[in-house]
Amino acid sequence: MFKGLYTAASGMLAQQRKTEILTNNMANVNTPGFKAEQTSIRSFPEMLLSAIDDTNVPTKKGLNLNQIQQIGTISTGIYLQETMPNFTQGDVYETNFNTDFALVNGNIPAGGNIFFRLAHPDGGEAYTRNGNFTLDGQGYLVTGDGYYVLSETGARIQLPNEDFQVADNGAVYVNNQQIATIGIAYVENANELVKQNNGIFRTQNGQALPSAFAQGNITFAIKQKFLEGSNVDPAQAMTELLTAYRAFEANQKVLQAYDRSMEKAVNEIGKV
């Protein structure tokens, strides 16, 4: 009976965590560059149940032989194994702001992806697909959280004002003179990145990713006055959210049934 309690409880915990992730996806449906979280639920190893009986053998010494009869398997519950961002590109839309940029994937190998390069406050580089940038008080191009946008050479990009142009190849022009190139990083396996708050990604070992411009087998473009939208599908997310909620309710009812059975066992059978 207690095995059933643990199985139902594990189901509730897994579905509760999935509900939290789906709710966060829904809350960021309008966040530029947001990548929806995907969940992977796995089952714990099943247990094989067997019945052991004694069989008397009619011999002079009266031998007893154990007979093992397999009954079947029992599940020991489920758990949320991991969460992974979905790196498919969101829709690109126009904003008409000079400091907004959208990365448009061209020929990118399967599993790989490209990101804007940022200077992380703790040192090293960070990466994002959210090109909703602005200029700080000193004219540096920064994210909404104050991360400096890096150039191809790894330097901060300083501009005199918002009157500048960026070509599709990332070249930044002021008064028709190129002053920098927006840094774009490339990762072969995007799932190896660690997701942090506000659409920021970092490598697991803290090492900087290689430049996307040095990869001869990929193509991409940078669109000024455009942003990449969230890749959350609201209809699908709502459907998955309702499914997770119903699964949570089902496990909850099973848990309540076990609780009532234990209550009877203690209060009624114990009196006999």
TrEMBL record:
Domain of life: Bacteria
Main location: other
Domain Flagellar basal body rod protein N-terminal residues, every copy: 5-35
Domain Flagellar hook protein FlgE/F/G-like D1: 112-174
Protein keywords: Bacterial flagellum, Cell projection, Cilium, Flagellum
Biological classification of the source: Bacteria, Bacillati, Bacillota, Bacilli, Bacillales
Family the UniProt entry places it in: Belongs to the flagella basal body rod proteins family.
Flagellar basal-body/hook protein C-terminal domain mapped to chain residues: 223-267
Origin species: Ureibacillus thermosphaericus
GO biological process: bacterial-type flagellum-dependent swarming motility
Subcellular location: Bacterial flagellum basal body
NCBIfam families: FlgEFG_subfam (TIGR03506)
Transmembrane residue ranges: none
UniProt-recorded name of the protein: Flagellar basal-body rod protein FlgG
Annotated PANTHER family: FLAGELLAR BASAL-BODY ROD PROTEIN FLGG (PTHR30435:SF19), FLAGELLAR PROTEIN (PTHR30435)
Any one GO cellular component localisation term in the record: bacterial-type flagellum basal body
